[in-house]
Amino acid sequence: MPQHPQRVRLLLKIALVIAIVAAIAFLVRQKFPKHTAIIPQPPPSTVPTTNPAPQPIIAIQSPPRTYMELINRQFPRLATTQPIDQTLNMRDWGHFRITDPIHIDRRGGLWITRPDAEETETLLPSAPTRQVQLTREHILFAHWFYSEGGDWNVMLVTPAANGGFELVSAKDRRPIGDGGDYDWSRAFSIYSERKIVVPRSGKVSIFTTADNISETVSPTLADGGAVQFQVDQRGFLAWVPPDAGQPASKGVARYVDGKWTALSPEQGWPANLLHLIRLDDGTVLQIIAEGEGKVRLAYAALDEKEIDEQRVVRLIIDLSDPDAQKREKAFAELTKFGPGLWPIAEKMMDSALPEAQERLKSLLKAKLTPLLGRMQLADAKLRVVSRFPEGGALFFAENGVLLPRGDLEPFVVRPAWIVARPGMEVQLLDQEMTQSIAPARSQVTAVGNEWIVTDSVLGPQRHFGGLLVPLLRKSEMQFSEFVGMDARGRYVFREPGNAQRPISATTNPPTAKPPATKFATTQATSRPANFNFAQLSDTPSLIIDPTLPDPVPRLPVWNIVVKQGSVGWTDDGWPVMKAGGVTPL
């Protein structure tokens, strides 16, 4: 019996301990309601050493297939995945450095060479539907032409792995040319005839690219020198001007109806032809170098072209129109005619209104002294500043030109920058632009309606709103060579002297003798196995895209010019400007 109270006390102690533990557990659960108990893990089982450990799954990114995929891949911070429908403010244009070789073709297409691009046989059939092509080929020339159904097709001229050149289509690769001195950078296509016209040193080659490739070479124009062209609907004229002291051609070679014809000095086509301007009445205005910077102008008949008299009559009538813009446009069109205009103008002189009579008298002065459009040279001195790919030229007359005004004294413009481009009137360059051009240190290029002036100090500048606006930033001044502008309005620049051409084929000597005939073909359309992409120059290009924002956001900046007063900071660290006794905050 005496042990019974002791056992009761023991049970009471155990019950008290259990109650305390339960209370503590309740309090912990109330304070940490989301506490997760740690569940002990069973010991790892023994894994045989012959079984490899599982590898993480890595997502392989497919190569880019479009321009936007390439830009977004290389510039992941870009704020958009698609071009913007309208041109951005110039300060916000996207500047993109691209290390891949870039080519702009005559239709404004952009070709970017990448080793991971589509296979050529897949790319070319769909190329007419895209403006930018990512290709495996290193493009020297893109040959566009019309198919029998009137659709666009394209072939590519590329360097061959074993030397020379290849013409690449979606079906095959064929050697083209003899590996000579072809200037593919100035080549152009005759779209409807599937022909390629390629200037060479002192001569011209024409390739027909139908079923077989054939080459026709012009008569030798000169012992070297860069050939120039004037193209019309029937064919073109080719000559070598005396530029930079190079030997000039003695006459002109004409290609028409598939044949070459030599036009000699005895036929009215003298030596030292500086430039030729095709006129709407079938005649050609010749600018002939006479030595010591002087030139002589002359008209030469090319075709017996029947002038559209009704068109000329309408233009003369429009010279009296109440609308000043219509009068100016009609006068500009009349300056594109040569001697064929004169009989019609003389016949309508008496019936024309006074203002129209003054304009007709100005044009008829060309009967005594040939005019450059509506202008007469002041002292017969003229020199070429730039030549354009489509056959145009920019001239500089240091002593200016005279603008005839009927019976009044002519108006003098000194100095004068004169633009002659095919299909357009010969006219003066915008004087607001020329005031900032130094002829000795500037290069002037025209692309469509855009003018790019490259200065040795300021770099490439765009003529915009009467001003020359720099295109490059200070960190981009090494990209001073203007390559071109594509159909989308993108500007492409590269470093001077790095034209991204492949190294000479002699660095990779051929392992097999090339086909004996130039008409031989191969069926493989992929790059030859021994082609080395390291042959391509890795000098980057700079693309300036007006429809994409810059990948690096640019904050707005205000330039404040203080002529009087001072600038500084308040005690609280705010910028202030004091001018004229007033301190604005």
Q: How would you characterize the largest beta sheet?
A: 4 strands, antiparallel
Q: What structural class should be given to the helix and strand makeup? A: alpha+beta
Mean pLDDT: 83
Instruction: Tell me the β content.
Output: 25-35%
> Helix tally?
8
Spans where pLDDT lies below 50 across 5 or more residues: 34-39, 500-537
Distance between the termini: 100 Å
The strand line-up of the biggest sheet is 1-33-32-31
Calculate Rg over CA atoms: 37 Å
Tell me, briefly, the overall form: elongated
Number of strands: 35
Helix content estimate: 10-25%
Description:
The chain is α+β, with helices and mostly antiparallel strands. The chain has 8 helices and 35 strands. The strands form 10 sheets. Strands 1-33-32-31 form a 4-stranded antiparallel beta sheet, with no helix packed on it. A 4-stranded antiparallel beta sheet has the order 5-6-7-8, with helices on one face. Strands 9-10-11-12 form a 4-stranded antiparallel beta sheet, with no helix packed on it. A hairpin with a 5-residue loop joins strand 5 and strand 6 (152-159). Helix 4 packs antiparallel against helix 5 (324-334). The longest helix has 29 residues, at 3-31. It is elongated and about 150 Å long. 30% of the residues are buried. Residues 34-39 and 500-537 have low confidence and may be disordered.
